[in-house]
Amino acid sequence: xxxxxxxxxxxxxxxxxxxxxxxxxxxxxxxxxxxxxxxxxxxxxxxxxxxxxxxxxxxxxxxxxxxxxxxxxxxxxxxxxxxxxxxxxxxxxxxxxxxxxxxxxxxxxxxxxxxxxxxxxxxxxxxxxxxxxxxxxxxxxxxxxxxxxxxxxxxxxxxxxxxxxxxxxxxxxxxxxxxxxxxxxxxxxxxxxxxxxxxxxxxxxxxxxxxxxxxxxxx
Length: 219
Ligand SMILES: C[S@@+](CC[C@H](N)C(=O)[O-])C[C@H]1O[C@@H](n2cnc3c(N)ncnc32)[C@H](O)[C@@H]1O
Description:
The N and C termini lie far apart (37 Å). The protein has a single domain (2-217), classed as 3-Layer(aba) Sandwich (Rossmann fold). It is globular and about 50 Å long. It has helices at 2-14, 26-30, 50-57, 69-81, 117-130, 147-155, 178-184; strands spanning 40-44, 62-66, 86-90, 103-109, 131-142, 157-160, 163-166, 171-174, 189-200, 207-217. By secondary structure, the chain is an alpha/beta fold. Helices cover 32% and strands 32% of the residues. It binds S-adenosylmethionine.
């Protein structure tokens, strides 16, 4: 199962020199000063490392995992090229154990949409355990207003109100509601929560995305 998923992401990365560009998500760069200094940064689904490399440049020890070999290779090459120390490896999120109380920041950027509801809950629990006191978690996801959500019931098997299964790609798609995302971090301090609807011209044909972005702090 993992192998098929890996191939989908491999194909995406292999088609282009850079899939996501090299600019970090802007909200992340705004809150660097709030990160506890004694911890590390963990980027889950690190991709080519646009966020991880930014934090490595700020002096943080950065770790990351991704299911795509090509993404990890690119991230490591870039890290070496810029004389940075990003420890990135190929691993599936669902089998990755996060060390408790270790991280100042954990990043899940455009990753959580691709898991079924139960896996999402487990991943978020592990993330919350992995953070230090005052540590930050950053999550960026497509929400239930995402254009693809409307057509999903015609194309895929519906598993829950906003959760689908694409049999051809063996891939799950979960669209988050704002209250759902807020609910996961009800016991945290909300630093930033935003919803946006915007045209994405960074890859492929221009298309719209409806996105929720959250930054929360562990009490
Ligand atoms: C939309 S990309 C985002 C990449 C990066 N976080 C960024 O914002 O630039 C989603 C990433 O999640 C990775 N991914 C998907 N399923 C995964 C899994 N089960 N375990 C680890 N990584 C996974 C993909 O390989 C891909 O790099």
